[in-house]
Amino acid sequence: MADRHHSGLLAIWISLISNIILTILKVTAGLLLASPVLLADGVHNAGDIIATIAALTSSMVSKKPADDDHPYGHGKAEVIASAFVAVVLVLAAFWIGIQSIIALFHPPGEESWLALGAAAISLLWKQALYIYTIRVGRATNSKSVLATAYDHLADVYASIAAVVGIGLGLLGGRLNWEWAAYGDPVAGIIVSLLVLKLAYEMGRDSVDILMERNVSVEKLAYYEDLLRSEEDVKRVDRVRAREHGHYIIVDIRVGVPYDYNIQQGHDISKHLKKLIMDYDPDVIEVMVHLNPWKASKHTLLS
Predict the structure, then answer these.
(1) Which residue segment(s) compose the domain that 16 sits in?
(2) Which residues of 44-83 are buried (b: 16+ CB within 10 A; e: fewer)?
(3) Looking at 182, 210, 238, which one is the last position of a domain?
(4) Are the C-beta atoms of 182 and 165 separated by less than 8 Å?
(5) pLDDT at 155 over 70
(6) Which of 6, 135, 174, 247 lies in the 20 to 30 Å Cα band around 65?
(7) In whole angstroms, how far apart are CA 51 and each of 66, 90, 128, 152, 197?
(8) Distance between CA atoms of 302 and 75, rounded to whole angstroms?
(9) Under 8 Å CB-to-CB from 66, ≥6 apart: which residues?
(10) Phi and psi (nearest 5°) for 141?
């Protein structure tokens, strides 16, 4: 668990440093080359710095152990950060969309090969960061790292729009395609919609976790199959599980023979907890409730 957390923190630190460098690159290039699309992308990247800092902070908080005030740990700090990043992406989507619509009603400016190069560097850099962070996020089940990855993906979309827009402007200037000068704002509008969709999906997942929605039906079914495979478990009454950031808490109710003593019940509970945690390393707590079961009477006795 410690190695996984370290990998997640490293991925977020790399993302933060990269966002700072790319913001400086894009804003500087946008000002020097008089490129509105690069300048807008640079401002968007500045918002990414704030989002990445939030992800970094939440990842560090989520590592704190459980205490009297937070008996189930601090894992949901990552979920809050994920929701915050979703809000940043919504704002970025509106920013890109509004700037693109405004650009449609202004005379197009001349594009530069240097601006195209800066946009291409940003695209390749962000694509590499997305691939790296999404792999780490999935391996560590870290919501803050996954949120950072999707933030990078939104930047990939924005950089694609910049490359396409600037490239069309350059090509249109050579071929006298007047319509090509508006490729940048049109691509920006499309990208704003893609980023908005990404923000919605991320926000929905965060809300589901904060509202303590059950984990997937498939995972619950496998937990139940594990319980039914045990000889002492005569009936599975209920299986629930919820994500708590980068880990899962499971709650089970099972029927065991009514004439078992307390020691036997304790041993069964301990074994069932280990059974589920061995199967799923993301589970850090299994709450077990034992109900008495009698062969001649299959109704719940308590």
Answers:
(1) 2-210
(2) bbbbbbebbebbbebbebbbeeeeeeeeebbbbbbbbbbb
(3) 210
(4) no
(5) yes
(6) 135
(7) 25, 12, 19, 11, 18
(8) 33
(9) 72, 73, 74
(10) 55, 40
User: What is the DSSP-derived secondary structure letter of residue 181?
Assistant: G
Are 91 and 182 part of one and the same domain? Answer: yes
Q: Are residues 157 and 134 both part of a single domain?
A: yes
Q: What is the DSSP string of 32-53?
A: HTT-HHHHHHHHHHHHHHHHHH
Give the pair of three-digit tokens for residue 219.
């995972």
**What Å distances lie between residue 288 and 61, 215, 254, 259, 292, CA to CA?**
28, 17, 8, 18, 13
- CA distances, 80 to each of 77, 117, 197, 268, 283 (Å): 5, 36, 19, 36, 20
Q: Same structural domain for residues 82 and 186? A: yes
Dist CA 97 CA 198 (whole Å)? 15
**φ, ψ of residue 243 in degrees (nearest 5):** -80, 140
**Among residues 34, 202, 176, which one has the least CA distance to residue 118?**
34
pLDDT, one tens digit per residue, over 216-269 is 788 888 899 999 999 899 999 999 888 776 678 899 999 999 999 999 999 999
What's the CA gap between 73 and 68, in Å, rounded? 10
d(CA 288, CA 42): 52
pLDDT in tens, 127-146: 999 999 999 888 877 777 88
Whether residue 71 is contained in a domain is answered as: yes
